[in-house]
Amino acid sequence: xxxxxxxxxxxxxxxxxxxxxxxxxxxxxxxxxxxxxxxxxxxxxxxxxxxxxxxxxxxxxxxxxxxxxxxxxxxxxxxxxxxxxxxxxxxxxxxx
Length: 96
What we know:
Blueprint lengths: L1 H13 L16 E2 L9 H22 L6 E2 L2 H7 L5 H10 L1
Parallel strand pairs: 1-2
Helix pairs in contact: 2-3
């Protein structure tokens, strides 16, 4: 919650000047981050955390089409993708 408030404060400072009565719109987008090979081997981190993060995000995005998610580490996606069924891959393509 504190991170969201800090982000909102930063965005407010960076926003262009607007009418005093105009509401400030703040968009909070869930994000997950995992450095490849930082604290664990690539395979260990993928097996212990990453695959379940991507699986869970897929489920959440399917439950609510208005949801958004940011994923920046393509290495993890590269490992996750071939393990998915054709149905999951098609669903992912629709979501993107």
